């Protein structure tokens, strides 16, 4: 794979992540809105903490955090996991099927009096470029084990479409929704205008899944660090602003501005971005000599200087050159250990 | 046209100006200058500026740390520029100017007023630029320039006519697209002239207005004042300064104040993490055409004094733009059919909002700016 292809792959991963965030919010809008306003008793959470039942086939009495928990009313809700891309190696797909099986359960944690939901569906939201292949895989799995897929499981494909405006398009490709209103609509395909997502949550950039580090670094370098410079003077010797940042404070700021705190929250909500993601990004900066590691505690010193080049491309180039310098002939293996490929 | 002043007269006139602007309240200085006959090439010139809490404070702070800008006295509202010896592109001698408020308009908007020739005015503007982004120029869009001109025609007791305007238009050259300035002289109605501008995709950069006294529906043949309004919030006056100040400059100040207030408080941290995005709406579909989306991405990638990251470039565009003057940042979305959404980041000053919007208007296309909120979309 040449450098351009590798760079393209990084960019695709960043784009996939952002599109997954938007797709989740668009699908949540489909469930909780009736087209003009939010339905009565409707609610949604991204990465909400839910409890499996004692009879769960995969993980009984366990806490799980589906990408999306979306409640249409006090009688119907959907838990969903989104995948904009899937690994090329189909042997790894078993884990996604297992995850779907785990979610196909009478979970506890809904916005109802007893936190139970009488009727629900467990969905996999897949990009349309992979949905058919995955369904073939799922049907193969069903032939060997009829209980491999739960009775309320479904697969929904999504894609973006540009007509007169930008839409997210969702269509039910496998299974049936247990809701008489939503099922026919999803079976024939629904379009959710992207602007409905953007007007509602214009600064949501993350969900409960780790973003590509280059994407997080771009956020930090182009928005967060600059906003913290204040009256800080440039260190002429370093040719950089020596900016001290703590992992905890930085994480909190990201959550408030671009993460979990931009959404409705309650005791079951999870927090994202997570400290571990931020620490990983700062460690990456240390590796690039754009930061000094903490002497003690969690406070790094970022050696901040603006880039002339596109910030994301700069971090991608750094990642590529670092992997070349470490002697890894195929940086993909090092950096994309899960072997993900673009779904688009 | 009177002959140019001799060197001796020029020096004496400079001394007179220094004395006129060195003492007294802003109102007294304004009155004094209004009563002064101005020999060519001197003109009364003013620039409407914005700052929180006031431009006067920003300029006093600038003077406190400057080798070239000095107050006439502590707490004075007048200043002078004494160019450093050997400083490139400057004139000799002190260049006085004063900071004048507008009655009934918030003190965040004031005018920098002087009587000067063109090189002296250039020197003042150059020094004031050092106070950016604390001191923000009022940048007028084409629509605002035209609306202001129309408002003046309605609101004054003078007959206001558009004498000429200067515009930029794109031309094709063997090396690619270039811009040239054109000056149009017009006796025709403003609306007709504007239609002509729109047809040729010209961008107005200044408008010359003439104020003719009118009595009993009969108009004088000699204008009482001639004003050139530039899109940088500058007004150049020939004739009655007080008339120009109370009409043209006041209109620019009102427009500028409304606009910069509209841009203020949008940074996420300042707004307690509640986003306040903006939209530039275009009346015609633009972003269904990939070539136009690409040209927007290329234009924003060339935004001066900025850092950028293209998050998505095709078929829709999503970029992150960081202003390197004050480190404000914005997410910019180009969404079909014709909307640009600007989502302010953690920090987003009014100066940075204005600069970015004006750059987009100048180098991409001018549109209508509005809050971007639910219900504002066409869907």
Q: Can you tell me about this structure?
A:
The complex is a heterodimer of chains A (344) and B (379). Chain A has helices at 3-32, 94-103, 128-144, 182-188, 194-200, 213-228, 247-258, 275-287, 311-325, 331-335, and strands spanning 43-46, 50-51, 63-64, 68-73, 76-83, 119-127, 153-162, 166-174, 190-193, 241-246, 291-292, 299-304. Chain A has 344 residues and is α+β, with helices and mostly antiparallel strands. Chain A has two domains: 3-200, no CATH class; 213-335, Arc Repressor Mutant, subunit A (Orthogonal Bundle), CATH 1.10.10. In chain A, helix 6 packs across helix 8 (275-287) and helix 6 crosses helix 9 (311-325). The radius of gyration of chain A is 21 Å and the shape is globular. Mean pLDDT of chain A is 92; it is low at 329-344. Chain B has 379 residues and is α+β, with helices and mostly antiparallel strands. Chain B contains nine helices and 19 strands. In chain B, helix 5 packs across helix 7 and helix 7 crosses helix 9 (350-363). The longest helix of chain B is centred in the middle third of the chain and has 23 residues, at 241-263. Chain B is globular. Chains A and B meet through helix 1, helix 5, helix 6, helix 7 and helix 9 of A and strand 15, strand 16, strand 17 and strand 18 of B.
* N- and C-termini, Cα separation of chain B: 61 Å
How many domain modules of chain A? 2
Instruction: Give the fraction of residues assigned to helices of chain A.
Output: 25-40%
CATH architecture of the largest domain in chain B: 2-Layer Sandwich
Strand order of the largest sheet of chain A: 1-4-5-6-7-8-9
Q: Which shape of chain B, going by the Cα principal axes?
A: globular
Q: How confident is the prediction overall: mean pLDDT of chain A?
A: 92
**Biggest sheet of chain A, open or closed, and with what strands and sense?**
7 strands, mixed
């Amino acid at each position: 794979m040449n450098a351009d292809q590798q760079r393209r792959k990084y960019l695709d991963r960043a784009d996939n992540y952002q599109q997954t965030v938007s797709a989740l919010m668009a699908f949540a809008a489909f469930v909780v809105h009736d087209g003009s306003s939010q339905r009565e008793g409707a609610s949604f959470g991204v990465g909400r903490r839910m409890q499996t039942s004692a009879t769960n086939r995969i993980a009984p009495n366990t806490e799980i955090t589906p990408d999306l928990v979306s409640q249409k009313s006090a009688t119907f809700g959907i838990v969903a996991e989104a995948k904009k891309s899937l690994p090329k190696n189909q042997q790894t797909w078993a884990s996604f099927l297992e995850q779907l099986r785990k979610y196909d359960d009478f979970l506890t944690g809904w916005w109802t009096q007893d936190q139970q939901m009488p009727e629900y569906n467990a969905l996999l939201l897949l990009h349309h470029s992979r949905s058919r292949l995955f369904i073939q895989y799922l049907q193969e799995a069903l032939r060997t084990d009829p209980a491999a897929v739960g009775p309320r499981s479904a697969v929904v494909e999504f894609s973006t479409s540009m007509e007169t405006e930008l839409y997210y398009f969702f269509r039910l490709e496998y299974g049936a929704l247990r809701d008489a209103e939503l099922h026919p609509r999803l079976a024939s395909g629904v379009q959710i205008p992207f602007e409905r997502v953007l007007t509602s949550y214009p600064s949501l950039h993350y969900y409960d899944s780790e973003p590509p580090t280059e994407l997080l670094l771009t956020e930090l370098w182009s928005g967060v660090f600059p906003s913290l410079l204040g009256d800080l003077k440039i260190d002429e010797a370093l040719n950089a602003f020596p900016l001290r940042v703590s992992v905890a404070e930085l994480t909190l700021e990201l959550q408030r501005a671009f993460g979990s705190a931009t959404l409705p929250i309650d005791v079951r909500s999870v927090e994202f971005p997570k400290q571990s993601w931020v620490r990983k990004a700062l460690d990456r900066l240390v590796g690039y000599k754009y930061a000094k590691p903490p002497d003690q505690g969690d406070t790094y010193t970022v050696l901040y200087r603006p880039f002339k080049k596109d910030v994301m491309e700069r971090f991608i180039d750094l990642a590529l050159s670092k992997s070349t310098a470490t002697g890894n002939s195929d940086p993909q293996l090092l950096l994309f250990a899960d072997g993900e490929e673009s779904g688009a | 046209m009177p002959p140019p002043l001799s060197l001796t007269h020029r020096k004496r006139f400079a001394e007179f100006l220094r004395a006129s602007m060195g003492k007294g309240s802003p109102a007294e200085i304004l009155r004094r200058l209004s009563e002064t006959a101005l020999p060519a090439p001197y003109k009364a010139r003013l620039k409407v500026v914005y700052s929180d809490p006031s431009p006067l404070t920003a300029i006093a702070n600038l003077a406190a740390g400057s080798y070239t800008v000095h107050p006439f006295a502590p707490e004075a509202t007048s200043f002078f520029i004494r160019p450093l010896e050997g400083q490139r592109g400057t004139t000799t001698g002190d260049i006085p100017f004063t900071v004048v408020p507008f009655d009934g308009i918030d003190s965040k908007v004031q005018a920098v007023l002087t009587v000067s020739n063109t090189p002296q005015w250039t020197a003042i503007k150059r020094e004031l630029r050092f106070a950016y982004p604390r001191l923000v120029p009022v940048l007028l869009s084409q629509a605002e320039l035209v609306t202001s001109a129309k408002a003046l025609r309605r609101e004054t007791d003078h007959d206001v006519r558009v004498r000429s305007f200067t515009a930029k238009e794109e031309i094709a050259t063997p090396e690619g697209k270039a811009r040239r300035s054109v000056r149009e002289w017009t006796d025709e109605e403003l609306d007709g002239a504007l239609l002509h501008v729109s047809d040729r995709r010209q961008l107005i950069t200044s408008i010359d207005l003439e104020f003719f006294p009118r009595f009993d529906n009969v108009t004088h043949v000699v204008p009482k004042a001639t004003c050139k309004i530039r899109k940088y919030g500058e007004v150049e006056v020939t004739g009655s300064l007080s008339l120009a100040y109370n009409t043209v400059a006041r209109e620019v100040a009102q427009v500028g104040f409304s606009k910069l207030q509209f841009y203020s408080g949008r940074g996420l941290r300042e707004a307690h993490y509640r986003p306040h995005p903006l939209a530039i709406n275009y009346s015609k579909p633009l972003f269904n055409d990939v070539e136009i989306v690409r040209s927007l991405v290329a234009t924003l990638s060339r935004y001066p004094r900025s850092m950028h990251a293209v998050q998505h470039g095709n078929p829709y565009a999503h970029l992150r733009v960081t202003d390197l003057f004050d480190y404000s940042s914005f997410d910019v979305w180009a969404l079909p059919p014709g909307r640009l959404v600007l989502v302010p980041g953690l920090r987003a000053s009014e100066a940075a909002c204005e600069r970015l919007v004006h750059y987009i208007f100048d180098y991409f296309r001018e549109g209508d700016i509005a809050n971007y909120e639910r219900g504002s979309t066409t869907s």
